[in-house]
Amino acid sequence: MSHINRYIIAFFVFLFVMSTAYADNHDNKPSWDKICETKDANTICQISFGQNMDYGDQTVWFSRVGVVELNNEQKKLFIHAPLGVKLQSGVLYQIDDNQTNSMPYNACYNVQGCQGLLEIDDTIIQQLKDGNVIKMRFTSVNGKAIDASVSLVGFTKAYNK
């Protein structure tokens, strides 16, 4: 397993463990936010758009779209799909009127659905900072398009935090 993959996996484990405590620091309305953790001289940050959701007797911070960074260098865009999508189709996304891109799913979770993950560069980060909306298209199991969008208002403030 590559060095970056170990840190990405460790970070998602961290997010799962910390989600209950972290949820107490947020409003219930969707918003952009940033959390970071430093371990062994490596800093992993997640800038994501999400909201609190009730899961059993816990309140969890559920992020739908965001960026994960390792040491401010390696960056990955992630998008959580709803349940009931075709995994083979991946996720299509577009920032404002820029080029439509696709990303494969890399993992599925029982509460959050499946997650697409794609390495990105500073050009995409700048598009997110300058943009108004990120549009996403998922394909349902019956082949129909499921369209969603997330406002990018607040992304720059959260990213620069």
Tell me about the largest β-sheet. 6 strands, antiparallel
Total helical segments: 3
Which of globular, elongated, flat, extended, rod-shaped describes the shape? Answer: globular
The helix fraction, in percent, is 10-25%
Summarize the structure.
The protein is of the alpha+beta class and 161 residues long. 22% of the residues lie in helices and 48% in strands. The model is unreliable at 11-27 (pLDDT under 50).
Please specify the SSE layout and strand pairing:
Layout: H1 3-23, E1 31-39, E2 42-55, E3 58-70, E4 74-80, E5 91-95, E6 101-103, E7 105-109, E8 113-120, H2 122-130, E9 133-139, E10 145-151, H3 155-160
Antiparallel strand pairs: 1-2, 2-3, 3-4, 4-8, 5-6, 5-9, 7-8, 9-10
How would you describe this structure in keywords?
3 helices; 161 residues; 6-stranded antiparallel β-sheet; 4-stranded antiparallel β-sheet; alpha+beta
